[in-house]
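User: Quick one: structure for sequence A, then sequence B.

Assistant: Sequence A:
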Amino acid sequence: MVSWSNRRKALTVLLFTGPTIIGILLFNIYPILLSVYTSFTNRNRFRPNPDCSVFLTGVLDPLCWPQFRTSAPVGLGQPYRLQDPIYANYANLIGNLFTPEALGAMAAIALCFVPLIAASFVNRRLNQMLEPPVSPRLVWLGALVLGFILATAVNVAQAYDTLMRTGDFVVVVFRTLLFVIARVPFSFLLGLTFALILNSDNLPGRTIFRVLLFVPWAASSLAILMALIWQFFFREQGTINQVLAFFGLSGFAWLRDPVSAFLIVVLVDTWFSYPFFMIVILGALQSVPRDVYEAAELDGASWWQQLTRITLPLIRPAVLPATVLTSITAFQMFGTVWAITQGGPINEVGRPGATEFVIVYAYKQIFQTQNYGNATAFAVILFIFLFTATLYSLRLTRITKGAYES
């Protein structure tokens, strides 16, 4: 039999942990279950009411509960039900991703990156040699040339077009990843450059420059307002086109061209984000011992060798977490792109715009088209994708190594 003392301990633990467990179940687990269930239904603006005769709908949807039954909205169509087939929303999003044509297109695109991956492994081995037979720069150059040849041979443009016509999910996630890949390295390089300049002892007025370079990050708290100012710069009658007209040059519809609109969003968000990298790198640089650089100079190391062999490896523990956080922020970016382009320009009806990233797409699905079933299916697929990517990044970077070791 269980003694009273053990029961008392269990009751005490339950009383202390009970509010937290209830909060997790109510505010975390329940919304996840409701979203997953909604993703298999045809719920939208015309069918907002639940069919409470269905068991799962009556249990999960609050509108079926007696307390909220009077708050049910009035819909034009019948109550929402499970899709037929049940995976229709997922099939609509993923589209033809797993057809032979799409898989072949993915393989063709992946083939173009094989030389770069191979160059990374080769250079890792070369860096372990005292006198490498080949320069790492030559290896990267050869990999780029080979990648370009492969891209031409497999017709990567046609493969990209085939992949982009598989479904909305592929289009939106690919463009978001492309935005992250463009924005994060630019933010890092800009932050590293300014941090190296500000870390110099011979720079007069360092305090003033630190404040001025920190302004964009402070302005990011008003990102939408600041983004509207940037939008005014690139309008057809905006500042840049007026300056071009002053010199007798014709203006350009910056925000109506897919490529220029994408690059403008990257530029503006890089301007917002580089101070974060700058502050992190500057703090890491000030913790690097000066005698390490003095010993390197005595050995005849150049500035580039000191940067690549000393500075970057020593600041890596600080830069890696900042890179992960910045990548997460970039992936869920909404305010800047919504203020500048609202996800456009749209070149084809029924297709995502050139800057319609994942959060913008989800926002449009929920608040504009009110296609709740499609939006929750998109959220479920995105959760699985991000969860897998997060586990891989943690394994690759070992960012949490030692955090739970005793």
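Sequence B:
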Amino acid sequence: MRKILYLEPVGGIAGDMFLAAGVDLGVTPEAIAQALSGLKVPGWKLAVSRAVRHAISGTHLDVVLDEREAHPHRAYSDIRQLIEAADTLSPRAKERALAVFRAIGEAEAKVHGVSIDAIHFHEVGAVDSIVDICGAAVVLDLLGDPEVYSAPPPLGSGTIRVAHGNMPIPVPATLELLRDVPVRFEGVGELTTPTGAALLKVLARIGQPPPDFIVERIGYGVGTKDFRDRPNVLRAAMGRAEARAEGLWVVEANLDDSTPQLLGYLLEHVLTKGALDAWVVPATMKKARPGHVLSVLVEGGARETVTDTLLRESTTLGVRSYAVERTALERDWVEVETPWGRVRVKRGLRNGTVLNAHPEFEDCRKVAEAAGVPLKQVMATALAALGPGR
């Protein structure tokens, strides 16, 4: 069963709104705080309340800081060390949080024309933003690691004062983060913050509609401001997409760290698990790493078994699948006589006409080995023995 989380940034998105939407979906603030307790940052706590925007009721969340917090500016390397050292975060949550901070760092570096190592986070380096970003990664863990989709976010307009001075809205980092994805240039004020933009860019498929799914829970994360033209909420719909059992599917995994022996084993092994066919093709992965794509053709009823096999026995961290259609020839077997023995030939027919024919390899090999003749000679003779019209 696939879990789906669909985000609608009606009033935009910020880190606290994402956390609030997660709480509104049923994640407890205590569970979030427990998972974040390993972060070595100054005192903070989550303050959760109910709020209403344009007659829509939801959850509002604030990260309340100890006033002694005096180090809001942090380098990317400092934040990376904080996250990596947090023993209460799952490996997947660490990976997601680090990816979000790296996306922000790369966007800031591009805007300022420096390397990411020279970037010092200001607003995003403060404790509340660290809690927001790491907390968002924790929320996805606690929701069961759903697939995340999002409608295009509204960006807002006007100006805002930040650590670098007055900036246009959207601020340059937000716009850089959302390069190459659908957005909406509408609204007044800052609707989508850099943190919110980074969460969407890294964690969600923006502008891509989710698959058909059954909505089971709905949450509203309420923002601080109250806009005139729209409710300042982030709506989150959580549910499940039922696996389609009918038809044919291709199940695929990208592998960049598998040995030839493992690839060969996997090809043979998935065939014992119900696969109709399996193949491996070379691929150039990100950062120009050489790799392979392992693809498996399977009927719907065996799809989950094959998926589980790939996740358990290959080195992949994820498997994708998509439905396909196939036009297949009718098939039958005939036996032909060769000078060295009888061999079966598989024929492919369409409307009674033979279009393809292939001698059975194992039959030909046994005959060739017994008679001491070349295998290719046996195969050619078997085809010739099939006769005109096959």
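The first strand starts at residue 2 and ends at 8. The chain has a mean pLDDT of 90.

User: Thanks, that's what I needed.
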